[in-house]
């Protein structure tokens, strides 16, 4: 029996979606200020209008319930689910008003890709984006990487009603600190510290390569945020290849790997618990997984003429693989070059790496290493039980921020999410195949969207079919929420509407 949403629930949900829209409007003030500072008057008009629209709609939604009271879990998962769609719908407004998108759907595609840190883009002439638009991209991918609810909590937007329901329903399974608000604030502080340090290094590298100070500052901060948040966007059309720097690529790889590690595990290192970090199942399984897949990837590209010499193979191959496995999506090659240089086997390896992704509680997308390990340990436990006498008691444990015992609930959750990801990967691939695209390209593209990896095989473009744009937007949205939350809310809303539809039908018969 599904618990129905009441009219009161919908009013509470509307109120807090209004709060989040207000937060989006406040975020738009940043590019607005930049537009005024750089005398970009056309973008200034766009962002001024968008700020006003966001604040107006946000205030109107908040009027649905003036004093909403304390949130329950059912309301929290609905707020989290629709927060991402609401943010993308509003975030697309200033973008579509520019001359870089052919339609609102194209702008919505980019906005969803930014907020979900997928990093895919169909913007035209990205090199000619205004500073204001580039800063808006920066704001959206940073807030999306942390999580919209995390950002809202850290600023106390939800006031006294904050509890673990909102935090957990966004896919954050672990709390660094006992209080979720403190955990959200710690996550922001840690990310700012890492991004700040990385920005200094990247700015120095770019200055050394002849960039002006202003461009170095902008590119350094942008790339630091994009890599640590595993977004994979750059301020130019040629992505990382624009910089022609081995040092910058190495820095970006380090940041991508850091971004793919659980924030709770990073807090263990800060506390000096290095041994706990090294013994964690996600770190060990992740290292083993990367080594195995990297060896297969290297073997698959060994025969490629362009990568025949070791330095080129190491530089281009390693960077591409790290970018895929962390679901960042950076590339030193264009989509067409990726298809031309790498054989289909190598593309399949990259797709599988994106499909799994990084650690839970990180900025990476995908199924997550923790779930793969839990499913594997559950399978081993099942085999042990089968091979043991009836009197034997088999218990499986694992080390993840302390010794933990494998439970049925964990296995069920891991299997459910795993199955949902695989199904969506397949459905998205079949949609691409049905619309005439190559099977391997369609599979890689579907995985890139649902895992929020963003490494395109060349399908993503302004000219792709409208149906595919809608499917990819849905994949990015659902993948960021790891499906269960969004599907549960969708079913509950449908169930909640049934009595109303039935009563209307009865009135019509009379």
Give the arrangement of secondary structure elements.
Blueprint: H1 7-27, H2 29-37, H3 41-62, H4 73-96, H5 104-115, H6 131-146, H7 148-154, H8 164-169, H9 180-208, H10 213-228, H11 246-259, H12 263-270, H13 274-279, H14 281-301, H15 310-325, H16 335-341, H17 344-356, H18 369-387, E1 397-399, E2 403-405, H19 408-434, H20 439-450, H21 466-480, H22 484-509
Antiparallel strand pairs: 1-2
Helix pairs in contact: 1-3, 1-4, 2-3, 2-6, 3-4, 4-5, 5-6, 5-21, 6-7, 7-9, 9-10, 9-11, 10-11, 11-15, 14-15, 14-17, 15-17, 17-20, 18-19, 19-20, 19-21
Pfam families: TrkH
Family: Belongs to the TrkH potassium transport family.
Keywords: Cell membrane, Ion transport, Membrane, Transmembrane, Transmembrane helix, Transport
Description:
It is a single chain. This protein has 510 residues and is mainly alpha-helical. It folds into two domains: 253 residues, no CATH class; 145 residues, no CATH class. The protein is 68% helix and 1% strand. It has 22 helices and two strands. It has a two-stranded antiparallel sheet. Helix 1 runs parallel beside helix 4 and helix 11 packs parallel to helix 15. The longest helix is centred in the middle third of the chain and has 29 residues. It is globular, with a radius of gyration of 23 Å. The C terminus is likely disordered.
As a percent range, the share of helical residues equals 55-70%
Largest sheet, order of strands side by side? 1-2
Give, in order, the helices and strands: HHHHHHHHHHHHHHHHHHEEHHHH
Sheet with the most strands, sense and barrel status = 2 strands, antiparallel
Q: What is the overall number of helices? A: 22
């Amino acid at each position: 029996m599904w618990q129905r949403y009441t009219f009161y629930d919908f009013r509470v949900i509307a109120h807090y979606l209004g709060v989040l829209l207000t937060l989006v409007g406040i975020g738009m003030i940043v590019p607005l200020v930049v537009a005024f500072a750089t005398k970009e008057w056309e973008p200034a008009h766009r962002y001024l209008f968008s700020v006003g629209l966001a604040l107006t709609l946000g205030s109107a939604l908040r009027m649905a319930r003036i004093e909403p009271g304390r949130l329950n879990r059912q309301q929290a998962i609905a707020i989290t689910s629709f927060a991402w769609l609401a943010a993308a719908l509003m975030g697309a407004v200033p973008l579509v008003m520019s001359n870089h998108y052919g339609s609102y759907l194209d702008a919505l595609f980019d906005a969803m890709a930014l907020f979900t840190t997928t990093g895919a883009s169909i913007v035209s002439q990205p090199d000619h984006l205004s500073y204001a638009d580039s800063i808006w991209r920066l704001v959206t991918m940073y807030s999306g990487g942390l999580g919209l609810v995390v950002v809202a909590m850290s600023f106390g937007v939800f006031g006294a009603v904050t509890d673990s329901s909102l935090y957990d329903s966004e896919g954050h399974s672990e709390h660094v600190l006992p209080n979720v608000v403190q955990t959200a604030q710690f996550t922001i502080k840690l990310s700012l510290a890492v991004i700040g340090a990385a920005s200094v290094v990247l700015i120095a590298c770019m200055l050394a390569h002849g960039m002006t100070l202003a461009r170095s500052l902008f590119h350094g901060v942008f790339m630091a945020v994009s890599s640590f948040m595993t977004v994979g966007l750059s301020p130019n059309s040629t992505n990382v290849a624009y910089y022609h720097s081995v040092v910058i690529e190495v820095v970006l790889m380090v940041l991508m790997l850091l971004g793919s590690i659980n924030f709770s595990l990073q807090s263990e290192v800060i506390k000096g618990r290095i041994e706990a970090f090294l013994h964690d199942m996600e770190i060990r399984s992740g290292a083993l997984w990367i080594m195995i897949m990297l060896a297969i990837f290297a073997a698959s590209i060994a025969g490629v003429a362009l990568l025949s010499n070791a330095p080129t193979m190491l530089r281009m191959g390693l960077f591409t693989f790290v970018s895929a496995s962390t679901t960042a999506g950076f590339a030193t090659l264009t989509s067409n070059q990726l298809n031309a240089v790498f054989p289909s086997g190598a593309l399949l390896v990259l797709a599988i790496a994106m499909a799994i992704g990084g650690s839970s509680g990180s900025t990476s997308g995908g199924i997550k290493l923790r779930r793969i390990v839990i499913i594997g340990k559950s399978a081993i436990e099942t085999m042990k039980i089968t091979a043991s006498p009836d009197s034997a008691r088999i218990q499986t444990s694992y080390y993840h921020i302390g010794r933990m015992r494998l439970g049925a609930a964990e296995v069920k959750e891991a299997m459910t999410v795993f199955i949902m990801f695989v199904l969506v990967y397949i459905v998205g691939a079949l949609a691409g195949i049905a619309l005439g695209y190559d099977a391997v390209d369609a599979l890689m593209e579907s995985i890139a969207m649902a895992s929020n990896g963003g490494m395109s095989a060349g399908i993503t473009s302004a000219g792709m079919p409208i149906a595919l744009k809608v499917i990819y937007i849905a994949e990015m949205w659902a993948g960021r929420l790891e499906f269960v939350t969004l599907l549960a809310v969708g079913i509950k809303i449908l169930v909640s509407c049934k009595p109303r539809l039935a009563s209307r039908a009865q009135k019509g018969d009379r």
